[in-house]
Amino acid sequence: MAFSSSSSYSVFLCTILTLSLHFRPNSSALLVKLSHHYRNHHKLQSENPIVQTNQTYSCNLFVGSWVYDISYPIYQFSHCPFIDPEFNCKLYGRPDSNYLKYRWKPATCDLPRFNGVEFLERMRERTVMFVGDSLGRNQWESLICMISSALPRSSPTHIIKGDPLTTFKFLDYGVTISYYKATYLVDIDIVQGKRILKLDEISGNGNAWRGVDVLIFNTGHWWTHKGSLQGWDYMESGRMLYKDMDRLTALDQGLTTWARWVDANVDSTRTRVFFQSISPTHFNPSEWSSSAALSMTKNCYGETSPVSGMVYATDGYPAEDADKMRVVDTVLQEMSFPIYLLDITQLSAMRKDAHPSIYSGDLTPQQRANPQRSADCSHWCLPGLPDTWNQIFYTALLY
To answer: Is position 7 annotated as part of the catalytic site?
Structure first.
């Protein structure tokens, strides 16, 4: 059924909402496709994330382990006023500090230490934009803090806060680093007070990304949220509205729309595009604790050290993220534009200690007193893990 005017759309909306309440598209074709693709899910990792560093060999930046390093962190929360309260763990009372001291060590090389002045010099008069959900904002704030820590306090900056776009400028260098909020990447429209997630439309968001020199995209968590956390009321696909559908099918359609936009609208000779893999959560201690320890914790609260061990090239993604990452990998494989996958999922899965937990400015005292219900085991403390994401981004971009 097609529509071409707002009045016919209203009639269409009233009619189709009733018809679609119990309809859920079958995703078996997609799942068969992903199952067939699973055996090759490291193909993109082995092609794009392998970079030639200043050393004499290639290095997979995502295979390695966490090592304790007393020279970290590279900045202090008290010297970076740009950190949102929900990420500012030390400001809101986190008592331990060892989580700040871990450095990611690839198995066959060393990451160059982040140099904020070098970043600005080499990115002079260029623009960088993070696009996605609050994990993208987490990483954006991290990069601003990392760069700012290398500059004298007298170095002029300018921030323009908005929704969905917030822009930070390092004026002496002409470098602009922005965050554009697009939780699902594709567009959301409000129709008769209802939020319509448009799986086939992206031009509303995409217009803001044109002409940017470096784009870093992320999405993932919100596609599976339900109840009060769900960010839409209806999905639209092929001009049909659905009360719900298989979430992997929706993610596949939305990412495919994004991929087609990038292929058609971004010039690979002037723009670098990165896609950040899904950031893991730590709400289920069975993923890292022995059965004897499960009674001690129900989420990331109280965790003070990483999971021990090493990430290997043959490791699969954490169970909670595996299906979504297979969708991401499949879509990226089919693109003509050369996307660099910042494959931080597995290395981040080891950092059960790096979440805000109850040490977040977004929580009330009553919520902090009930960590089993209120702990934030999704976002990350700053300083903290997103600094490593940016160190890898810095390496991939400039080395």
So the answer is: no
What values do phi and psi take at 396, rounded to 5?
A: -65, -35
Give CA angle at 212 (209, 216), nearest 5°: 75
Q: For residue 281, which phi and psi values (nearest 5 degrees)?
A: -110, 170
Cα separations in angstroms, 80 against 143, 146, 151, 229, 319: 11, 9, 12, 30, 35
The C-alpha atoms of residue 58 and residue 56 are separated, in whole angstroms, by 7
Confirm whether 379 is a catalytic residue.
Answer: yes
Are residues 185 and 200 in contact, defined by beta-carbon separation less than 8 angstroms? no
pLDDT in tens, 246-275: 999 999 999 999 999 999 999 999 999 999
What is the Cα 98 distance to its own chain's centre? 24
Is 78 considered catalytic here?
no
Q: Would you list the domain boundaries of the chain?
A: 6-398
Residue 221 DSSP SS3: helix
Farthest-apart Cα atoms in the chain, separation:
65
Query: What's the CATH code, domain 6-398?
Result: 3.40.50.1110
66: β partners: 104
**Which two three-digit tokens encode residue 374?**
């209120």
The pLDDT assigned to 298 comes to: 77
Catalytic residue, candidates 65, 134, 142, 348: 134
pLDDT of residue 292: 43
The active-site residue out of 321, 329, 353, 376 is 376
| pLDDT recorded at residue 27 | 38
Residue the block writes with tokens 């919100």: 222
pTM of the full structure: 0.86
pLDDT exceeds cutoff 60 at 130: yes
Task: Give helix then strand counts, H and E, for the chain.
Answer: 12, 15
Average the pLDDT over each of 120-129, 216-225, 295-304, 376-385 and give the range with the smallest value: 295-304
Closest CA to 331 of 232, 225, 189, 223: 223
* Number of Cβ atoms within 10 Å of the Cβ of 21: 10
Q: Which residues, including other chains, have CB under 8 Å from residue 20's CB and lie 6 or more apart? A: 234, 240, 241, 242, 243
The arithmetic mean of pLDDT across residues 293-297, rounded, is 54
- Say which of 41, 221, 355, 379 is annotated catalytic: 379
